[in-house]
Design goal:
The protein is α+β, with helices and mostly antiparallel strands. It has five helices and nine strands. Belongs to the polysaccharide monooxygenase AA13 family.
């Protein structure tokens, strides 16, 4: 006789994939509901690791979605206004520890970059990147995921000038694309760097 317990355990984790657990990443709140609609926010609250590609379909069916205010491809539409209390204050050249929690692997590529929130473009080059082999399934299930994929340091660039001096102007974005699953995952950390 088959047991349903393993199936239930699997069902409860199928939606989960990965997120930045430290420093504090953006979370959904009232500003996200106002911009992105309740369907998107409920999906993210239900699973804070939801992949980006599933969100536009939810948004399209929600009359509360406002495309002008909610860029689903930037921090999954999560809004700075909901996260103003979590702004990190860093200095140029500072080493920042980043911890990622992977819950279901999809081998692919990933990077951590400083992103301009107005343009949704990377400023400079990625601070760290994995061109292939990120979140490898075999390593994950063998509990041998390389530590540098889940607990690593990045150095805050010294050439940001005043671009990231105002809270909300920039995020530190962890971005991962599972090539087999064809799904993107991202977390954003709000921060400032004082102008020189």
């Amino acid at each position: 006789m088959l047991s349903i317990v393993p199936l239930l355990a699997l069902a409860s984790t199928v939606a989960a994939h990965g997120y930045v657990s430290s420093p504090p990443a953006r979370e959904a709140g009232n500003a996200a509901v106002a911009a992105c609609g309740r369907s998107v926010v409920n999906d993210i609250k239900r699973d804070n690791t939801s992949h980006v590609e599933g969100l536009p379909e939810l948004a399209a069916k929600d009359s509360g979605y406002n495309a002008a205010l909610c860029n689903l491809w930037l921090c999954r539409g999560l809004q700075f206004a909901d996260n103003a209390a979590n702004v990190q204050k860093w200095t140029a050249g500072q080493s920042v520890n980043v911890k990622v929690r992977l819950t279901i692997p999809h081998t692919g590529n990933a990077n951590v970059s400083v992103v301009d929130t107005k343009t949704n473009k990377i400023i400079g080059k990625p601070l760290v990147s994995w061109d292939k082999g990120y979140a490898d399934e075999k390593a994950f299930y063998a509990k041998t995921t390389p530590k540098d994929q889940i607990d690593f340091n990045v150095t805050i660039p010294s050439d940001l000038g005043s671009q990231c001096a105002s809270a909300g102007a920039c995020v530190l974005q962890w971005w991962w694309y599972g090539t087999g699953a064809k799904q993107s995952y991202e977390s954003c950390v709000d921060f400032t760097v004082a102008a020189p």
